[in-house]
Amino acid sequence: MDPNALHNLSYGMYIVSASCGGRLNGQIANTVFQITSQPVTVVISINKQNLTHEFIEKSCNFSVSVLDESTPLQFIGKFGFRSGKTEDKFKDTKFEVSKSGCPLVLDHTIAYIEAKVTSKFDCGTHTMFIGQMTDSKIIAPGKPMTYSYYHEVKRGTTPPKAPTYIKGEAK
Fold it and tell me: Which pTM does this prediction carry?
Protein backbone atom coordinates (compact mmCIF):
# COMPACT_ATOMS: atom_id res chain seq x y z
CA MET A 1 0.00 0.00 0.00
CA ASP A 2 1.38 3.42 -0.99
CA PRO A 3 0.04 6.21 1.28
CA ASN A 4 1.38 8.77 -1.22
CA ALA A 5 -1.66 7.96 -3.40
CA LEU A 6 -3.57 10.12 -0.90
CA HIS A 7 -1.66 13.17 -2.18
CA ASN A 8 -3.90 13.01 -5.24
CA LEU A 9 -6.99 13.93 -3.22
CA SER A 10 -7.90 17.62 -3.36
CA TYR A 11 -7.60 19.75 -0.23
CA GLY A 12 -7.51 23.46 0.52
CA MET A 13 -5.84 25.75 3.04
CA TYR A 14 -8.12 27.26 5.65
CA ILE A 15 -8.07 28.78 9.10
CA VAL A 16 -10.68 27.10 11.31
CA SER A 17 -11.48 29.22 14.36
CA ALA A 18 -13.64 29.11 17.46
CA SER A 19 -14.02 30.84 20.81
CA CYS A 20 -14.61 29.72 24.37
CA GLY A 21 -14.91 31.71 27.58
CA GLY A 22 -13.85 34.92 25.85
CA ARG A 23 -10.73 33.35 24.37
CA LEU A 24 -10.14 33.03 20.62
CA ASN A 25 -8.20 30.40 18.75
CA GLY A 26 -7.66 29.33 15.20
CA GLN A 27 -5.60 26.81 13.31
CA ILE A 28 -4.66 25.84 9.80
CA ALA A 29 -6.81 23.04 8.42
CA ASN A 30 -6.80 21.35 5.04
CA THR A 31 -9.90 19.20 5.45
CA VAL A 32 -13.04 21.27 4.92
CA PHE A 33 -15.78 20.30 2.52
CA GLN A 34 -19.46 20.84 1.77
CA ILE A 35 -21.70 17.75 2.04
CA THR A 36 -25.21 19.10 1.39
CA SER A 37 -26.86 22.17 -0.08
CA GLN A 38 -30.26 21.93 1.66
CA PRO A 39 -29.41 22.86 4.35
CA VAL A 40 -25.88 24.01 3.53
CA THR A 41 -23.72 21.68 5.60
CA VAL A 42 -19.92 21.50 5.86
CA VAL A 43 -17.47 19.13 7.53
CA ILE A 44 -14.13 19.89 9.16
CA SER A 45 -11.52 17.53 10.61
CA ILE A 46 -9.70 18.72 13.75
CA ASN A 47 -7.01 16.99 15.81
CA LYS A 48 -8.24 16.21 19.32
CA GLN A 49 -5.02 17.60 20.86
CA ASN A 50 -5.57 21.09 19.39
CA LEU A 51 -7.04 23.94 21.41
CA THR A 52 -9.40 24.70 18.51
CA HIS A 53 -10.92 21.24 19.01
CA GLU A 54 -11.64 22.01 22.67
CA PHE A 55 -13.22 25.35 21.75
CA ILE A 56 -15.45 23.81 19.05
CA GLU A 57 -16.53 21.03 21.43
CA LYS A 58 -17.55 23.58 24.09
CA SER A 59 -19.07 26.30 21.88
CA CYS A 60 -20.58 24.09 19.13
CA ASN A 61 -19.63 26.78 16.57
CA PHE A 62 -16.74 27.24 14.15
CA SER A 63 -15.67 29.51 11.35
CA VAL A 64 -13.64 28.74 8.25
CA SER A 65 -11.54 31.43 6.56
CA VAL A 66 -10.56 30.49 3.00
CA LEU A 67 -6.96 31.53 2.35
CA ASP A 68 -5.79 33.14 -0.89
CA GLU A 69 -2.85 31.72 -2.88
CA SER A 70 -0.84 34.85 -2.01
CA THR A 71 -0.92 34.07 1.73
CA PRO A 72 2.68 34.20 3.06
CA LEU A 73 4.16 31.08 4.64
CA GLN A 74 4.88 33.09 7.79
CA PHE A 75 1.14 33.76 8.22
CA ILE A 76 0.30 30.09 7.65
CA GLY A 77 2.99 29.14 10.16
CA LYS A 78 1.50 31.47 12.76
CA PHE A 79 -1.77 29.52 12.69
CA GLY A 80 -0.36 26.11 11.74
CA PHE A 81 2.86 25.56 13.65
CA ARG A 82 2.19 27.42 16.90
CA SER A 83 -0.10 26.60 19.78
CA GLY A 84 -2.90 28.82 21.00
CA LYS A 85 -2.24 27.30 24.42
CA THR A 86 0.93 29.39 24.69
CA GLU A 87 0.34 32.43 22.46
CA ASP A 88 -2.35 34.68 21.02
CA LYS A 89 -2.49 33.79 17.33
CA PHE A 90 -4.81 36.73 16.65
CA LYS A 91 -2.31 39.32 17.86
CA ASP A 92 -1.47 41.56 14.87
CA THR A 93 -4.07 39.76 12.71
CA LYS A 94 -7.04 41.58 11.19
CA PHE A 95 -10.27 39.81 12.22
CA GLU A 96 -13.86 40.32 13.31
CA VAL A 97 -15.86 38.42 15.89
CA SER A 98 -19.15 36.99 14.59
CA LYS A 99 -22.51 36.93 16.40
CA SER A 100 -21.72 33.41 17.66
CA GLY A 101 -18.34 34.58 18.98
CA CYS A 102 -16.18 32.93 16.32
CA PRO A 103 -13.23 34.92 15.04
CA LEU A 104 -13.37 35.58 11.29
CA VAL A 105 -9.86 36.07 9.91
CA LEU A 106 -9.77 38.87 7.33
CA ASP A 107 -6.04 38.93 6.50
CA HIS A 108 -5.31 36.91 3.32
CA THR A 109 -8.91 35.63 3.29
CA ILE A 110 -11.11 35.55 0.21
CA ALA A 111 -14.24 34.22 1.95
CA TYR A 112 -15.48 32.94 5.27
CA ILE A 113 -18.08 30.42 6.37
CA GLU A 114 -19.55 30.09 9.83
CA ALA A 115 -21.35 27.00 11.06
CA LYS A 116 -23.21 25.54 14.04
CA VAL A 117 -22.17 21.99 14.93
CA THR A 118 -25.02 19.54 14.32
CA SER A 119 -23.09 16.31 14.90
CA LYS A 120 -19.62 14.90 15.22
CA PHE A 121 -17.79 11.66 14.56
CA ASP A 122 -14.81 10.25 16.41
CA CYS A 123 -12.10 9.37 13.89
CA GLY A 124 -9.32 8.28 16.24
CA THR A 125 -6.82 11.16 16.42
CA HIS A 126 -9.34 13.58 14.89
CA THR A 127 -12.99 14.54 15.19
CA MET A 128 -15.11 15.29 12.15
CA PHE A 129 -17.42 18.15 13.07
CA ILE A 130 -20.49 18.50 10.85
CA GLY A 131 -21.95 21.99 10.85
CA GLN A 132 -24.90 23.76 9.30
CA MET A 133 -23.82 27.06 7.74
CA THR A 134 -25.15 30.08 9.65
CA ASP A 135 -23.29 32.83 7.78
CA SER A 136 -20.86 33.35 4.91
CA LYS A 137 -19.33 36.20 2.97
CA ILE A 138 -16.97 36.87 0.08
CA ILE A 139 -14.22 39.12 1.48
CA ALA A 140 -12.04 39.76 -1.58
CA PRO A 141 -11.43 38.49 -5.08
CA GLY A 142 -8.73 35.87 -5.34
CA LYS A 143 -7.89 32.26 -5.91
CA PRO A 144 -8.24 29.80 -3.01
CA MET A 145 -5.00 28.12 -2.02
CA THR A 146 -5.06 24.37 -2.55
CA TYR A 147 -3.01 22.02 -0.43
CA SER A 148 -1.14 21.02 -3.57
CA TYR A 149 -0.25 24.68 -4.26
CA TYR A 150 0.89 25.05 -0.63
CA HIS A 151 3.29 22.11 -1.03
CA GLU A 152 4.45 22.49 -4.63
CA VAL A 153 4.65 26.28 -5.04
CA LYS A 154 4.94 27.60 -1.49
CA ARG A 155 7.08 24.63 -0.41
CA GLY A 156 5.05 24.31 2.79
CA THR A 157 5.35 21.35 5.14
CA THR A 158 2.85 19.10 6.93
CA PRO A 159 2.78 19.15 10.74
CA PRO A 160 2.44 15.82 12.58
CA LYS A 161 -1.07 16.68 13.88
CA ALA A 162 -2.46 17.23 10.36
CA PRO A 163 -4.87 14.57 9.03
CA THR A 164 -2.69 14.26 5.90
CA TYR A 165 0.60 13.75 7.76
CA ILE A 166 2.52 10.64 6.64
CA LYS A 167 5.12 9.41 9.15
CA GLY A 168 8.61 9.35 7.70
CA GLU A 169 7.76 11.77 4.89
CA ALA A 170 10.06 14.75 4.51
CA LYS A 171 8.57 17.75 6.29
Answer: 0.88
